[in-house]
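To whoever picks this up:

The nightly regression suite flagged Lipoprotein as changed. Nothing in the input moved, so I suspect the structure step. Input below, exactly as stored in the fixture:
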Amino acid sequence: MRVFRCLLLTCLLLLTACATEMRPGATAEAPKRVAFQKAGLSPENGGLLISADALQAGDILLSASDGITSAGIRMFTLAPVSHAALYIGDGQVAEAVGEGVRLRSIPDVLDEEAVVVAFRREGLTPEQTAAMRAFAEARVGQRYDYVGVLLQAPFSVERRLCELPLVPSLVRDACLRGVAAIQLGTPDNERFFCSQFVLEAFRVAGAPLLDAHPRWLSPADILHMREEDVSSLRVEQPLVYLGHLKFLETVQDPRVAARE
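Regenerated output under the current build:
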């Protein structure tokens, strides 16, 4: 029984943890249109490759890798991303991973991830982006929220009852908040997983993306906060898709993988 429990906990971590995996990679050589999860991006631009010069402090980076952990998360959440991070300016990215909160350079992110997509909450002030950077730098080394990640597994299953087709948005929002309050609670943010860390940075800066507790949301939820998408929870201001910083066709659309 103890062995079974250990295996179960390991599987839950693989399916729900925020995934970044150390792997060599190469950035795209020339701009091109991107087919990766095209339906999941704004149809107007169809996916654009951009350079890091297009980023501003406060931008959100969603990513995926070719590793098993990333694939498991994307299959479980039916989303093309498995990790969320925050660009804080000066070529630095802040993120919460297994070893805790850390800073990475943009080149390191592009080397280690297979797909990196940038989104922006418009209207941030210099004071707010400075507050986000201060928040991130002050928490470097802070421990990872493994408890929150484990609780995300049953929540990710039960929440789908609230997200059935034809459920009105207000009913969906209320249902999801009720399930989240029961399953996840609202603890103090002393430890973080990736999406929780990003959302908390916006909250403490006075520019929350939504009024739900950051522990309730995954990288997939942040993806669905973009314009012309349907978020499970009411969003204060939709995110604007900036473009892909990196795209490798080796990362498969999880919906295609599921069908196969």
